[in-house]
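Exam revision sheet. Question 4 asks you to relate a sequence to its structure. Input first:
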Amino acid sequence: MILLMVYQYRFDKILHIKVKEKDEALSFYNESVRKFEEAAEKLYSLLKKKEDMQSHQSSRLEKGLNVQEIRYHQQFIVNLEKTIEHYQTMVLNARGRMNFYHEKLLENNVEVKKYQKMKEKDHQHYLKDMIAFEGKQMDDISIQQFMNRGN
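Answer key, structure tokens:
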């Protein structure tokens, strides 16, 4: 009588849940990276625009500007600085969220690795037990055959 046993990891459902949590954390992290990059790119473009505007204004001042144009440029730069401050705050918040989700992702990765390592060790133990069981079955079969020969 040969008995065939199929390996079933006892924490398979937990491992599946942990993998799902890790994938979800990866998704949140990737989204936070995307939002951070968008905010940072917008901030960079605004800073570049301010720099260009200031250099343009400096070159125009050397050639001579009327008071109305100077006021217009100054008001534009003031508004641009307010927008830049807003985007600096957005970048800081986005970086904070990104770092938070990165930490969560790292924690979930560690959890998944733990369960995968446990599964690997459990499977090796199972294989060792199966080899021992098969050896015992072979011994039992040999004993039966030897006993049958004697009859």
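Marking note for examiners. The two ends are 21 Å apart (CA to CA).
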